[in-house]
Specification:
alpha+beta, Butyryl-Coa Dehydrogenase, subunit A, domain 1, Butyryl-CoA Dehydrogenase, subunit A, domain 2, Butyryl-CoA Dehydrogenase, subunit A, domain 3, 3 domains, four-stranded antiparallel sheet, three-stranded mixed sheet, 14% strand, globular, binds flavin-adenine dinucleotide
Length: 389
């Protein structure tokens, strides 16, 4: 199956930028690479027959993670919206790879926004080229949605910070070279860059998951883990704000990954509906199947436009937190509905074939991770009501 680029991608870029043709070309390059090198292996990845690490390396080389960053640090200097569309294509090719790279990029984004010039110069080129893989370590066993209430502590001792505590469900942790760790000091929340080989840092076993099985996830433990004070990102006391800011952008990307997952499930189901026959005709001729096909397509496009809209707001320097949350809630929940319809259209094959049902299993994570749908609805309501007061 090919053709990850749709006419909506091209129209969005042409309508929004005078360099639209150039950005379409960049997207076409990425799509061609994904179609040839990633999409054909997605089922093997889900079944645990292939690791994502080599494919991820080749995607790093292809510039997927460097799209929105400054060329000074090895970035391509293209708009964030181009990155968001590229991550949709990555999600369409393989959701696990897209998730792993998106989390890695959230770390790069935070360092780019709040890191010192020295941190940017040292860390960003290694992250953008994929020389090092990053994890974002916020969630703890006792605090997920209520992340501000974290228990991991950090103490200033001389010229060092000493971390004690643990994190859980950390994507990429089993493979990561560097961790962006959020903890609490006597001065409030802090954000620290911690190398994997730092004494006192330990990573647990890769966790079993319902979907996104190619991505790795683990607990991370800190016991008297001592890092130099140059590891501090930004200011002591502001760490949680950096996490929130990184998550705002990352939520748009998670929405986009879900648009990609849904698009692949849609294409498979639409093709199957044309080929499968019942009662002497193609099942696509039944209006009840046609209704599903129409609803799937309209949810995909509406999700895509919401994600693109939120990413344009970020580019234009506007407050995009409510729109990012709206994009994530709508795109992730719509993706589940689309993937569920795909299973229904495939009938028994949908329930038994990993090649069909993994899309639903992959999408299922994303109404939970990076802000559950419940928490994001609370955020949207607060923002919208505050605007009316
Ligand atoms: C595969 C996977 C990968 C992940 N990757 C990362 C990662 O890389 N880095 C990281 O830091 N974290 C990661 N996470 C953690 C993820 O962000 C959290 O699981 C998520 O924020 C929810 O937290 P929780 O699991 O503790 O659930 P809880 O916060 O305990 O929530 C349980 C339920 O209660 C609901 N709830 C909680 N508070 C409210 C409220 N005020 N009103 C209404 N309902 C509420 C929630 O919506 C949810 O339905 C990952 C999780 C998974 C499963």
């Amino acid at each position: 199956m090919s053709g990850l680029i749709e006419r909506e991608h091209e129209l969005l870029l042409l309508q929004s930028y005078k360099e639209g043709e150039q950005y379409i070309e960049a997207l076409r390059n990425i799509a061609a690479f994904l179609e040839e090198n990633v999409l054909p292996f997605s089922e093997e990845i889900d079944l645990g027959k292939r690791s994502i690490s080599e494919l991820r390396k080749s995607l790093f080389k292809h510039g997927l993670c460097s799209i929105p960053f400054n060329p000074e640090f090895g970035g391509l200097g293209l708009p964030f919206s181009v990155y968001v569309l590229a991550m949709e294509l990555a999600g369409a090719a393989d959701a696990s790879i897209a998730l792993s790279m998106a989390i890695h990029n959230t770390v790069a984004d935070i360092i780019n926004m709040y890191g010192s010039p020295e941190q940017k110069e040292k860390i960003l080129p290694e992250l953008l080229s994929g020389k090092k893989l990053a994890s974002f370590a916020l969630t703890e066993p006792s605090s997920g949605s209520d992340a501000r209430n974290m228990n991991t502590r950090v103490e200033k001792r001389g010229d060092s910070f000493v971390i004690n505590g643990s994190k859980t469900y950390i994507t990429n942790a089993p493979e990561a070279d560097v961790f962006l760790v959020f903890a609490r000091s006597e001065n409030g929340h802090v954000c620290l860059v911690v190398d994997r080989d730092t004494e006192g840092l330990e990573v647990g076993k890769n966790m079993e998951k319902l979907g996104m099985r190619g991505s790795t996830t683990a607990e991370v433990f800190f016991s008297e883990c001592k890092v130099d004070s140059s590891s501090l990102v930004g200011k002591e006391g502001e760490g949680f704000e950096y996490a929130k800011s990184g998550l705002n952008s990352s939520r748009i990307v998670m929405g986009s990954i879900c648009v990609g997952i849904a698009s692949t499930a849609f294409r498979k189901a639409a093709i199957f509906s044309l080929e499968r026959r019942a009662f002497g005709k193609s099942i696509s001729e039944f209006q009840l199947i046609g209704e599903k096909i129409a609803n799937m397509k309209l949810k995909i496009n509406a999700s895509r436009f919401l994600c693109f809209f939120a990413s344009r707001m970020r580019e234009l320097g506007m407050d995009f937190s409510s729109h990012a949350a709206q994009a994530k809630v709508f795109a992730t929940e719509s993706s589940l509905e689309v993937c569920d319809s795909a299973i229904q259209i495939f009938g028994g094959q949908g329930y038994t074939s990993s090649d069909v049902n993994r899309h639903w299993r992959d999408a299922r994570l994303l109404t939970i991770g990076e802000g559950t749908s419940e928490i994001l609805r609370i955020l949207i309501a607060k923002k919208e009501l505050a605007g009316l007061r």
